[in-house]
């Protein structure tokens, strides 16, 4: 059987299945409800033309990196662009993590940390968040001291809990960790705090960002890493030559040139408050504070609520089978219309 030939590390893996579910309001994947900026939309023909799709894309995304460097207050030597930050996590593992190296990451958190470190054959050491889903910094530091990991991954704000790590705590971790420290800032724009400015001070710090969330380009797959130029060189050694396609590079550049997304981010933050306040008025659930564009909510029976919401046309994220989050749902903040409808449905379901 072909299965006998598969690498040991991958045996027992399930496909990362994201079923396509019809719904009226898609609130499951932390995407933005907004489309492309109008100017980009009106310019699409020019943008596609300038992308010269008969040629291979720029392998090092030069223009896009210059723009991202400007956005991050750094230089192009400090920026690496990937086919989504997912790909960069994979590239990071390929560059730095050997079989049996130790990788430390929080749980619950973004599921791809585990997937890619398992593919690398690493020894995964998961550090649980506290009961209120805040980071257990002492435990992370203990774990680093015991296991001397090759890589420590922190997700800030954390997906799917929305909780954050203070800058001081990240610095504490950077000081004790002799390996790589990855800080995944996928939701940076909603949070507002960053450690990008520390890349000059800590040479093994890698900050991950993405244009999939606040910038609304999930379908184009553009993520980036910010780190010192030596780390960026290591990533370039193992990446596929043409990892980011020309259309994605060109549209990402145009969207960034249209300016910051502050207004859209403010809208979502305001809606986050609207949703959280509304949820607090409904009994039989617990909602957690979040610094991202989603809220984590616990129920007595999350699967029942999930199915009832779906019947009413609202798709949220469930964590069926998860040890910690089996009774939680994660709802992505949407438009006022979507959020109001979500609240109305929940009230009907939970009476
Ligand atoms: C969504 C998300 C990503 C993936 O972003 P892409 O750039 O779309 O691959 C990475 N990390 C976290 C924590 C996320 O929530």
UniProtKB/TrEMBL annotation:
Its cofactor is pyridoxal 5'-phosphate. It comes from the Bacteria. GO terms for biological process: L-histidine biosynthetic process. It catalyses: L-histidinol phosphate + 2-oxoglutarate = 3-(imidazol-4-yl)-2-oxopropyl phosphate + L-glutamate. The keyword Lipoprotein does not apply. It is an enzyme of class 2 (transferase). Its EC number is 2.6.1.9. One of its GO terms (molecular function) is pyridoxal phosphate binding. Residues 26-344 form the Aminotransferase class I/classII large domain. Pathway: Amino-acid biosynthesis; L-histidine biosynthesis; L-histidine from 5-phospho-alpha-D-ribose 1-diphosphate: step 7/9. Belongs to the class-II pyridoxal-phosphate-dependent aminotransferase family. Histidinol-phosphate aminotransferase subfamily. HAMAP family: HisC_aminotrans_2 (MF_01023). This is Histidinol-phosphate aminotransferase. It comes from Thermoanaerobacterium xylanolyticum (strain ATCC 49914 / DSM 7097 / LX-11). The lineage of its organism: Bacteria, Bacillati, Bacillota, Clostridia, Thermoanaerobacterales. The gene is hisC.
């Amino acid at each position: 059987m072909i299965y006998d030939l598969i690498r040991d590390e991958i045996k027992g893996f399930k496909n990362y299945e994201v079923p396509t579910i019809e719904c009226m309001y898609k609130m499951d994947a932390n995407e933005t409800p907004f489309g492309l900026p109008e100017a980009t939309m009106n310019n699409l023909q020019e943008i596609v033309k300038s992308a010269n799709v008969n040629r291979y894309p720029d392998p090092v995304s030069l223009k896009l990196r210059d723009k991202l460097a400007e956005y991050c207050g750094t230089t192009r030597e400090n920026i690496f662009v990937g086919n989504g930050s997912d790909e960069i996590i994979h590239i990071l593992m390929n560059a730095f993590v050997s079989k049996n190296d130790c990788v430390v990451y929080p749980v619950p958190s973004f599921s791809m940390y585990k997937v890619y470190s398992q593919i690398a054959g690493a020894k995964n050491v998961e550090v649980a968040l506290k009961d209120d889903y805040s980071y257990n910094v002492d435990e992370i530091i203990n774990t680093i001291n015991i296991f001397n990991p090759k890589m420590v991954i922190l997700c800030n704000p954390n997906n799917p809990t929305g909780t954050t790590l203070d800058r001081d705590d990240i610095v504490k971790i950077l000081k004790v960790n002799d390996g790589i420290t990855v800080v995944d800032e996928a939701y940076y724009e909603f949070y507002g705090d960053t450690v990008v400015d520390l890349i000059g001070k800590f040479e093994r710090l890698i900050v991950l960002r993405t244009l999939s969330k606040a910038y609304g380009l999930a379908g184009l797959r553009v993520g980036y890493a910010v780190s010192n130029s030596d780390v960026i060189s290591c990533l370039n050694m193992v990446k596929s030559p043409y990892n980011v396609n020309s259309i994605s590079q060109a549209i990402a550049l145009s969207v960034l040139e249209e300016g910051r997304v502050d207004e859209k981010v403010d809208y979502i933050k305001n809606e986050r408050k609207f949703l959280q306040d509304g949820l607090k008025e409904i009994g039989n659930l617990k909602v957690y504070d979040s610094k991202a564009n989603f809220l984590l909510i616990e129920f007595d029976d999350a699967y029942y609520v999930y199915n009832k919401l779906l019947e009413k046309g609202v798709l949220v994220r469930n964590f069926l089978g998860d040890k910690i989050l089996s009774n939680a749902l994660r709802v992505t903040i949407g438009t006022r219309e979507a959020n109001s409808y979500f609240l109305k449905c929940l009230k009907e379901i939970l009476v």
